[in-house]
Amino acid sequence: MEKGEWDNRTSPVNFILLGMGNVSSVKTLFFLLLLMIYSVTMVGNILIVVLVVADQHLHTPMYFFLGNLSSLETCYSSTILPRLLASFLTGHSSISAHGCITQLHFFCAFASSECYLLAVMSYDRYLAICQPLLYASLMTWKVSLWLTAASWLVGFLSCTIVPSFLSQFKFCGPKKIDHFFCDLTPLLELSCSDTRVVTTVSFILCFLNLVFPFLFTLASYVCIIAAILRIPTNMGRQKAFSTCSSHLTVVTVFYGTLITVYMVPRTPQLRQLNKVFSFFYTILTPLVNPLIYSLRNREVREALRKALRKALAFTQRSQQFCTPA
After folding, report:
1. Nearest to residue 57, comparing CAs of 230, 242, 229, 306?
2. Which positions fall inside the G-protein coupled receptors family 1 profile domain (predicted)?
C-alpha cells in the first residue's frame, strides 16, 4: 500500500493525551496516589465479588446484582487507570488512533452497562419495598440472570456503533487530546470528517444509555420513598430505607458527577474543571462504591467478618502445622 493511501486512514495516527495538565512537579506523588486508588479499587471490588460468591447468605438477587456491579467497576477502572499509570511511569503519553477508539469503546460499554445495571438494581429495590409479597415470584433467579445479561449485552452492543464510525474518520490538526483518556468530544474536535451523523447517533445513544436508565431509576426511587413514608413506625421506615440506602448513595454519586461532566461546556476556561469531574466519575466512583457497600450494608459487613475469621483461623492452623514439635 502506498504511503499516500495510509495518510487518510486512522491506523498510522498517534494522539497525545495531555492528561491532567502540567503536574510534572508532583508527578511521583500523583503516580503513587493513582496507584493506591487503583489497588484499593481492584481489591475492594474483587473482594465484594468473592464474598457474594462464597457466602450463602448473599446468594440473593440483590447481592447478585451487587457482584455484577463490582465486576463492572473493576473492568471500568481497568480501561483508564493502567494506561494512565504507564504514561506517568514511562513519560510516553501517545496512543494510536485504534488504541484510542478501542479505549473509548470499552469505556462507553462499561459505563452504559453500569447505567442499565443501576436501573435494574433500583427495580429490584422497588419490588422488595413496594411489592414485598410478590417479590419472590417476580424477581426469580431466571429473571435476575436475564436482566443482568441484558444490561451487559445492551451496553456493549450499543457502544459498537460510534467507534465503528470513528474508525473511518480522518484526523488532522495537532493530534493532541486535552484529556487523560479518550473521550468522544475531544476526539470529534480533532476530526477533519463530517461529524454530524456521529454526533446525532451519539446523542440518541446518550439518551438510551444514560437518560432513560436515569429516569427509570429516579421513578423507582420516587415510588420507593413514597412507600417508605407510608410506613407508620419509625423503626419500619428505617429498616426499609436501610435496604436501599447504599444503592441510592451509589446512584447519587455516579449520576451526579456524570451529568455534571457533560453539562459543563468544553470551553478553554472550564476544561480543567471538566477533567476534575471526569476524574471523579471515572476513577473515584469505582473506589468509593465498595466502601459504601461495606460500611453501610450489614450483610456485607457480616460476610466480611466471617471471611476474615476463617482466614485468620486458617493462618493459625498453617503456622501450627509448620512449627516443628
Report:
1. 306
2. 44-293
CA-closest candidate to residue 272, choices 186, 178, 184: 178
Provide the 8-state DSSP code for 21: S
Joined grid coordinates for residue 157: 452492543
pLDDT class of 125 with cuts at 50, 70, 90 = very high
Q: What is the pTM of this model?
A: 0.87
Residues 174, 175, 177, CA angle at the centre, nearest 5°?
110
| Whether the Cβ atoms of residue 120 and residue 152 lie closer than 8 Å to each other | no
Query: Closest by alpha carbon to 262, among 171, 176, 156, 183?
Result: 183
CA 198 to chain centre: 23
Phi, psi of 239 (to 5 degrees): -65, -45
22 touches 265 (CB < 8 A): no
Which of the residue ranges 20-24, 246-250, 308-312, 320-324 has the most confident prediction, judged by mean pLDDT? 246-250
Q: Find the helix or strand (DSSP H, E) in which 177 lies.
A: strand 176-177
Q: Tell me which residue has cell 476513577.
A: 283
